[in-house]
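May I ask you to comment on the folded chain given beneath this request?
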Amino acid sequence: MFVRTASERDLAAIRALLVETWHATYDAIYGARRVTEITDDWHSIASLKARLTRPNSEFLVADDGKRLGGIAFASATTDPKIVLLNQLYVHPDCQRRGIGRSLLDEVEASFPEARTLRLEVEEANSPAIAFYEAHGFRPAGRTADCGGGSGIPALILEKRLA
């Protein structure tokens, strides 16, 4: 798969990937009904479309020409040296093939002034935490409101960039 910038024509496939990945990851944690509510809100076409034109951000997809295997979205904070990795998801059928690493590498390359890459992750999502720690992220705190406005607690992880 190759990593490229997402476009409007990708939005339906991005939404489908996010819905399927969220159910596979979070149904056991939040329940299928709550996951559907979250994905209907956070991963609506309108919400995804707004990210395409967000300033100081990068919206990426991993594409093999037939399907999307993963997505990533990151944005600079008010401090340009800190970038927030808002989303990095790899379809369950495509995990453990280097797609997450490729997306993460491209996010880092997209923000050359950044010195810190920060993310929030559900504490019960141990596979994601293991992935991030294997790629240089370390615990940096906790939040009671993942993503701002969700009321979902999360770990905050950070990676220092060169």
User: Anything to note?
Assistant: The helical segments are 11-30, 32-42, 45-52, 99-110, 126-134.
